[in-house]
Specification:
Layout: E1 10-13, E2 22-24, E3 27-30, E4 38-43, E5 54-64, H1 65-68, E6 72-78, E7 81-89, E8 92-96, E9 101-104, E10 109-113, E11 118-123, E12 130-139, E13 150-154, E14 159-161, E15 164-170, E16 172-173, E17 176-177, E18 187-193, E19 198-202, E20 208-215, E21 218-220, E22 223-225, E23 230-233, E24 239-244, E25 249-256, E26 263-266, E27 269-271, H2 274-286, E28 288-289, E29 292-293
The structure holds manganese (II) ion.
Length: 323
């Protein structure tokens, strides 16, 4: 998905480790358009902009397509990151400039590597009446951020136990491992807990974790976490305990070792400097002509003739670094 804010801020992101569990509440962001699908953004935030290499968490729905118009995100560029699409309900059709054409479906992860630059589009098909899911971004480390664009898909087999079910779409958990390659160690999983169930997860103690509550109320290491909150859990724990309160809970569990690099994030671009942001923005704008999107640094999504999304204006002032 594209960050469709009219005037996105430029954010310098760096990790910050705090001693205890920290509850991050979402902010509502309209994605533009006449009926405007809204998303709940929990990352980045002022107090924290990275969890491992996870740098962006947009959570949306369940939304009736009849009300929102569904997901219609025309061609737009990305650099320096991977997009991770995870749906609970509905479908989204993906097309990119590296020639990938794929459907995003519930319980199946689609990971697009932007690397040095890609453009793509995402549109929900007419058969989708409800959309519910998360759009996540992963920052690429400096050593790998200019890799060729790529795409991976994986449908994890659910792992089950008493009162819980898990789908591990990135990394390893509960004896399952995703085959999707990543450039830094990462964890991504959907967990379902029955009312009152407790799940004690063995986790990598070098990882920090984020627990995004999609439905229900749960305790994360004893700290109450409400629907739509993202609970941050610092590194240093080899067990992560989740307990559902009196209703069923669905969460996304994200993790990774603290990223250790500062990034500059603006619109759909992950860079290291403001100058890089400016240069990539100009490359994209140079591809937008009266005749539509023409080939250039980011290419043209194969099979999508929709007019592209122009880059928003750059902010007048750079923001202070955030930690
Ligand atoms: Mn996108």
């Amino acid at each position: 998905m594209s960050n469709l804010e009219d005037r996105p801020d430029e954010v310098t992101c760096a990790g910050a480790v705090t001693p205890g569990v920290e509850i991050m509440t979402p902010r509502d962001v309209p994605l533009g358009g006449p009926r405007a699908m809204r998303v709940r953004r929990t990352l980045p935030q002022r107090q924290r902009s990275l969890i491992g290499a996870w740098c962006f968490v947009d959570h949306y729905g369940p939304d009736l397509v009849a009300d929102t118009g569904g997901m219609v995100v025309p061609p737009h560029p990305h650099t320096g990151l991977q997009t991770v699409s995870w749906l609970f309900t509905g479908e989204v059709e993906h097309r990119d400039s590296a020639g990938h054409h794929a459907m995003v479906r519930p319980g199946e992860v689609n990971l697009m590597t932007a690397g040095r630059g890609i453009s793509h589009s995402e549109v929900s098909p007419p058969s989708t009446t409800t959309l519910h899911g998360a759009q996540l971004w992963v920052a690429l480390p400096d050593a790998d951020r200019f890799v060729d664009p790529g795409f991976a898909h994986h449908a994890p087999t659910p792992v089950t136990g008493p009162g819980w079910e898990a789908r591990v779409f990135l990394g390893s958990l509960l004896g399952d491992a995703s085959p999707v390659p990543t450039y830094t160690p990462l964890l991504g999983a959907e967990l379902l807990l029955d009312p009152g169930a407790t799940l004690a997860l063995e986790v990598d103690e070098t990882f920090e974790h984020g627990v995004l509550a999609d439905t229900g109320v749960l305790s994360v290491e004893g700290v109450e976490t409400k629907k739509d909150d993202l609970a941050y859990v610092p590194p240093g724990r080899s067990t992560l305990t989740l307990t559902a309160h009196d209703e069923a809970v669905r969460v996304l569990l994200l993790g990774g070792p603290p990223f250790g690099e500062s990034i500059v994030m603006w619109w759909n671009i992950v860079a290291r400097t403001h100058e890089e942001v400016v240069a990539w923005r100009e490359e994209w704008q140079a591809q937008i002509t009266d005749a539509g999107l023409v080939d250039g640094h980011f290419g043209v999504p194969v099979g999508d003739e929709r007019p592209p999304i122009p880059a928003p204006p750059l902010p007048n002032a750079r923001l202070r670094p955030r930690t």
